[in-house]
Design a protein that fits this description.
Number of domains: 1
Helix content: 25-40%
Shape: globular
Number of strands: 11
Bound molecules: S-adenosylmethionine
Strand content: 25-35%
Structural class: alpha/beta
Mean pLDDT: 93
CATH class: Alpha Beta
Radius of gyration: 18 Å
Strand order of the largest sheet: 3-2-1-4-5-11-10
CATH architecture: 3-Layer(aba) Sandwich
Distance between the termini: 47 Å
Number of helices: 8
Order of helices and strands: HHHEHEHEEHEHEEEEHEE
CATH topology: Rossmann fold
């Protein structure tokens, strides 16, 4: 098996179908609540703080922070479909979250605007250019205020390497079946994802590749971007479920500060 990857896959994968295929992790309010409980224990977030949820998708973490009275949240993401859904949800619930579209390597956001920058839910390692993640970390550093906190949560590369099953499938509701074929290639997990609707037939056949980070390697990259007090909060990270959630089972969390 060898999976062929379009290097720009990350520009089109994150849409309404992704919210179905990954609903077990990204549309589960209980999981998001538990994640925010954990993150609030790791970095001190206060009601008046300005928070940037970078690569924030449809804004599930920002919305949960709003529920807890932290209202000054910005979600920044490349995927217009997710931003649109997030903005509609926020409006419905009367949360003043800002949703901004762009590339996290060069956000055009003002310098030193945020008290905290969060990159959550395995949103790094998508772009094949080997400096892309460093650019995203440097951009996080640039928009963060001095003494501000940075929090990064990705899938734990070591655990993925140990536990990867090459084939996985699950059903979503009565209609959808998600099948994933996976392989490890160099330092990345490559996957082909086929999504079948019993009503409509094949609705997705896409492949993607995500760089796998080990704790020390990611901590070194965060340090290279300029951060200090870099802490690996959990070596084997948090296992949220016994189900096979693709890249979302085993997380590696890093906290750091801007000097
Ligand atoms: C797995 S999703 C996670 C979304 C969100 N953080 C969550 O936990 O629900 C990864 C997100 O990162 C975004 N992303 C990846 N690379 C990006 C980039 N260079 N610029 C902006 N967004 C990016 C994708 O569009 C996608 O919404």
């Amino acid at each position: 098996m060898s999976i062929t990857i379009d290097p720009d896959w990350w520009k089109t994968l994150f849409d309404e179908v992704y919210l179905v295929t990954d609903a077990r992790s990204v549309c589960n309010e209980e999981i998001t609540r538990r994640e925010i409980d954990l993150f609030c224990n790791l970095i001190p977030m206060h009601p008046q703080d300005r928070i940037l949820d970078l690569c924030g998708g449809h804004g599930r973490h920002a919305m949960e922070l709003c529920k807890r009275g932290i209202l000054n949240c910005t979600v920044f993401d490349y995927a217009r479909p997710l931003l649109k859904i997030g903005a509609e949800n926020a409006e419905r619930q009367n949360y003043p979250v800002r949703f901004i579209q762009g590339d996290a390597r060069d956000t055009k956001l003002a310098e030193e605007e945020y008290d905290h920058v969060l990159i959550l839910g395995n949103s790094l390692g998508y772009i094949p250019d080997k400096n892309a993640d460093l650019f995203i970390l440097r951009e996080s550093f640039r928009v963060l205020k001095s003494k501000g906190w940075f929090l990064l949560e990705v899938t734990d590369g070591n655990t993925v390497r140990e536990k990867l099953s090459p084939i996985a499938w699950h059903e979503m509701g009565d209609d959808v079946v998600v099948c994933r074929e996976r392989e490890l290639k160099n330092d990345a997990i490559c996957a082909r994802e086929m999504v079948l609707s019993k009503q409509k037939g094949l609705i997705r056949d896409k492949s993607y590749s995500i760089h796998l980070y080990e704790p020390q390697q990611l901590a070194a990259l965060v340090t290279k971007a300029g951060f200090i007090d870099v802490q690996i909060c959990s070596d084997s990270a948090t296992c949220y479920s016994e189900e096979d959630l693709g890249c979302m089972n085993h997380r590696l969390i890093i906290s750091a500060r801007k000097p």
